[in-house]
Amino acid sequence: AQSVSQHNHHVILSEAASLELGCNYSYGGTVNLFWYVQYPGQHLQLLLKYFSGDPLVKGIKGFEAEFIKSKFSFNLRKPSVQWSDTAEYFCAVNPNDYKLSFGAGTTVTVRA
Amino acid sequence: ETGVTQTPRHLVMGMTNKKSLKCEQHLGHNAMYWYKQSAKKPLELMFVYSLEERVENNSVPSRFSPECPNSSHLFLHLHTLQPEDSALYLCASSQAAASYNEQFFGPGTRLTVL
Q1: Which partner from A39, A110, B99, B114 sits 20 to 30 angstroms from A96, CA to CA?
Q2: What is the tens place of the pLDDT at every residue in A49-65?
């Protein structure tokens, strides 16, 4: 079955540490890729997206993600996290229709 | 303000009850979606409406019945639910039902079935 895998269920790190969250998908062909974030008590919101072009995508709040087609991966990174980055992060893949498939999410806890 | 509102935010119902979830989008979008979010599981797409027509029914049991009276409003009618239906139900909208359109999500309705 086609799926989206997020490797880490829960990541705990200190402020100023670097963050990388893994995302792999199993769809073949062209895909559109998204990272969504859900801060505590808030709704899901878009962090960044990739459709085509430069495989290194920059999003809001200093986040970036790199699309590596050969590895079917779209990993999320931030060089230096802040306490306010504590949230749940979801990778999502849209294989050329309207059906957005989500990973199970990674909870990130940043300790002050 | 997200632009997508959902009511109620919390709902507790018995298995014999009938209730409805409401979603409203203020973004002028043409596509609306219902998702189910269960603990530690990926979001599951339930229904998709494009220009008020249902374009996707993702093998959802008939005890869930969607309604889209216009492009701004989406309902999910619930009847004879099971305890395993307890979850967070999210509504989303997008400009169109297309792969390149960002989906905007509401805050969700936390449903508990007793």
Answers
A1: A39
A2: 999 899 999 999 999 99
For B:8-37, CB contacts with A below 8 A are 31
The pLDDT tens digits of the residues spanning A72-109 come to 999 999 999 999 999 999 999 987 677 889 999 999 99
Amino acid in position A106: T
Q: Residues B52-60: contacts with CB within 8 Å, 24+ apart? A: B55/A98, B55/B97, B56/A98, B56/A99, B58/A99
Residues B89 and B74 sit within 8 Å (Cβ to Cβ): no
With a CB cutoff of 8 Å and minimum separation 6, the contacts of B84 are B113
Phi, psi of B27 (to 5 degrees): -110, 0
Minimal CA separation from A46 to chain B, in Å: 8
Closest residue on chain B to A88 (Cα): B40
pLDDT of residue B6: 97
B57 beta partners: B47
* Residue predicted with more confidence, B2 or A55: A55
